[in-house]
Write a structure and sequence with these properties.
Strand content: 35-45%
Number of helices: 10
Helix content: 10-25%
Distance between the termini: 101 Å
Radius of gyration: 44 Å
Structural class: alpha+beta
Shape: elongated
């Protein structure tokens, strides 16, 4: 059963190739052609030729393997408009399987021709007249198809350039795609799904490669170099197809062109021939054809149709500098010119022999330039070519050849390094702002590294001649390195004075104890004592003319055991005004149940702690449930019961502690024998503050 299923699926796949699928991707490698163009005595490979002109010589031959078994007829036809069928002499054929045809076709572009279309047709009787009659019978269909094929081929090259970069692995650079994707979008006019860049680095590439046919944005320059004067009928059809109702849409010129081609070729289907489109991918003089339908060698046989560049006036690339304020260093080893406006600069080799002409004081020099889509500009290797002693900005202009025609691009100003000119932007306080130091005087574009104490320091460009860096702790020297061969600038920073310690005094305290529910009351012996279960509020006043900023922290701790509490404006501190702050703390909750003894606080600002300030004595208190004495007044002892009795150090019937009953350290029980009180209360020494006498019972 599984074998039968596979065979059935294979047969279905073969049958489905009889008609091209509109949604099938162009991913089938077709045959290749070799094409060169000669214009006014100069010959270029097809990859360097964006447009043709009348009188150009085109040499084209099929580049088929020696083992090629199917015989292909190569036919070239010039077109001259939707309503003007081309004459017979504008059709040329080459029987590629014959030795005398190995050199292929040598064509001269005739006056009046607007486009050239190439056919690769399987050999049949009467194949050449059949193809010629088809073109002459429906010239408008082939004009439209040729123009769409040319446009789709250019868009396909932009897409290929994008996919090639995204698919390139960079194991050691997980942030690469996030860094270069905006440059790819700008340079190639590609629609980027920004959500992809929020994913994990290993998932970004797969996300960016989704919906590939919808990635290519409309590009006016690409459209301009494929538009031909095709006659009013085709012009109207093209205008309609460029509307949303015609299926184009803002993001889908590539999809629209392919849809048009498939529709046109489907309407020209005959019992003998079917036409399948091929997108041309030039590489030097090789013109590799990419198909979206497998060719058929049974009736109806597949005729592969490809387009060469149109015959029209040359449309030069509208290059522009992508940044309104480009910062470019004249003495850099590599100069990167951020260029946009013409995606074909990056996706094709139409622009060649590019150079940057630099107007130096001793005369202009030309430095070779090459497009680099990943870096979003033209890269010029300038190491050692610009003199290090340059003192003033110089003008530099991009120029080169667009096909056969020279062109001149935008100009930029290159800045001299001025490495030794860096200085503090303001001597006062070392120009610090929020922990940053501002430096001025040099060329920010020429900086390679900034370091302090031998360690790299992060820096930020503020202006062409101004930067900011993180202020190094403790002062020292800052080194600013520029292009190779130039001495680094060195700026000595005076060690900053140590920040002042914030002094403060306690101006008020308030202790609020929870309501006592135990039957036997506990009374403290001093206002200095702070019960652990109470809420303490202490007010501090800044001393010595200092002021609070609201960013201070107050640390509170006890003399023995427990944690240190840190109070901030978000938790525990209330800034009454720039002079007074109120701290609120519940010691048992903030310091823990093991904290006791002298309670102190200090104010911390900018990491600098002030002196400790005493704010009381933390005392943990037991829970007393009952004081029970025998009815016999002569009995000397009573029983005191409750929890945490170990917090009592000693008990006496008199304030002088003449007959003290000492409580063992760490006593774990819940009842102890104590003297009979002389009145209504007993006197106690607390474990946490034995020098101060308290009372149990009485009022």
């Amino acid at each position: 059963m599984p074998i039968r299923f596979r065979l059935t699926a294979a047969i279905a796949a073969l049958i489905s190739t009889a008609a091209p699928a509109e949604n099938a991707p162009f991913d089938l490698a077709g045959p290749s052609l070799r094409v060169t163009v000669t214009h006014e005595g100069k010959t270029l490979p097809i990859a360097n030729v964006p447009q043709l002109a009348a009188g150009d010589r085109i040499d084209v031959r099929a580049d088929l393997p020696e083992s090629q078994s199917a015989h292909y007829l190569l036919v070239a036809a010039f077109l001259r408009g939707a309503t003007n069928p081309p004459p017979d002499k504008w059709f040329t054929q080459s029987e590629t399987w014959k030795k005398k045809a190995r050199k292929g076709l040598s064509l001269i572009v005739p006056e009046g021709a607007q486009q050239i279309v190439l056919f690769l047709a399987p050999e049949t009787g009467g194949d050449f007249p059949t193809l010629r009659n088809a073109v002459q019978g429906k010239p408008g269909a082939f004009v439209r198809a040729t123009q769409d094929l040319a446009q789709a081929s250019l868009d396909h090259q932009r897409l290929d350039a994008f996919l090639s970069v995204v698919r390139t692995p960079a194991p050691g650079d997980p942030e690469r795609l996030e860094r270069i994707t905006p440059l790819l979008a700008r340079s190639l006019q590609i629609k980027i799904n920004a959500d992809c860049l929020t994913r994990a680095p290993e998932l970004q590439a797969a996300c960016l490669l989704q919906n590939q046919d919808a990635l290519v944005l409309n590009d006016g320059h690409s459209n301009a170099i494929t538009d031909a004067l095709a006659g009013p009928g085709v012009d109207l059809a093209l205008q309609i197809s460029a509307t949303p109702q015609g299926g184009l849409g803002y993001y889908s010129p590539y999809i629209a062109a392919v849809r048009d081609i498939i529709g046109l070729f489907g309407s020209m289907h005959t019992a003998k021939y079917q036409y399948i489109p091929a997108l041309a991918t030039p590489d030097g003089d090789a013109l590799r054809l990419v198909l979206n339908t497998a060719p058929s060698f049974h009736n109806p046989k597949s005729v592969i149709v490809a387009a060469l560049p149109i015959v029209a006036p040359v449309r030069l690339p509208p290059l522009e500098i992508a940044s309104s304020d480009p910062a470019i260093c004249a003495q850099s080893e590599e100069i990167v010119l951020p260029v946009s406006g013409a995606p074909l600069i990056y996706a094709t080799r139409y622009a060649h022999d590019l150079a940057l002409r630099i107007d130096l004081p001793g005369g202009p020099i030309d430095l070779p330039a090459a497009s680099d889509v990943e870096r979003g500009g033209l890269v010029v290797r300038a190491a050692g070519k610009v003199p290090p002693g340059l003192t003033a900005p110089v003008k530099a202009t991009i120029h080169g050849l667009w096909g056969f025609r020279p062109f001149e691009g935008p100009s930029v100003s290159l800045q001299p390094a001025h490495v030794g000119s860096w200085r503090l932007a303001s001597p006062a306080d070392s120009a610090k702002r929020d922990g940053q130091i501002e430096l001025a005087g040099g060329a920010a574009a020429c900086i390679t590294t900034v370091s302090a104490g031998g360690a790299p320091v992060a820096w930020k460009r503020l202006a062409p001649d101004r930067i900011s860096i993180a202020a190094p702790r403790g002062g020292g020297a800052i080194e600013i390195a520029g292009p190779r061969g130039m001495d680094a600038a060195r700026i000595e920073l005076a060690a900053p004075p140590p920040p002042a310690r914030l002094a403060a005094t306690v101006i008020a305290r308030h202790i609020q104890r929870p309501q006592q529910t135990a039957p036997v009351a506990i009374m403290l012996g001093s206002d200095d004592q702070v019960p652990a279960d109470a809420t303490l509020r202490a007010s501090f006043r800044a001393a010595g003319g200092m002021r609070f900023t609201g960013r201070e922290t107050i640390e509170i701790e006890a003399g023995s055991g427990g944690d240190t509490a840190s109070l901030t404006a978000a938790h525990g501190l209330t800034f009454a005004d720039p002079q007074v702050v109120i701290a609120t703390i519940q010691p048992a909750a903030a310091l823990g149940t093991s904290a006791f003894g002298p309670l102190r606080a200090r104010i911390v600002r900018d990491g600098i702690a002030g002196d400790w300030i005493p704010i009381g004595t933390l005392v943990r208190l037991p829970q007393i449930r009952q004081l029970r004495c025998p009815d016999d007044a002569a009995a000397p002892a009573c029983e005191l019961s409750g929890d945490n009795l170990f917090l009592i150090s000693g008990v006496s019937a008199t304030p002088g502690f003449e007959n003290e009953a000492a409580i063992p350290d760490g006593y774990p029980g819940n009842a102890i024998q104590v003297p009979r009180p002389a009145g209504k209360a007993l006197y106690v020494r607390w474990h946490d503050d034995p020098a101060t006498i308290g009372r149990i019972g009485g009022s």
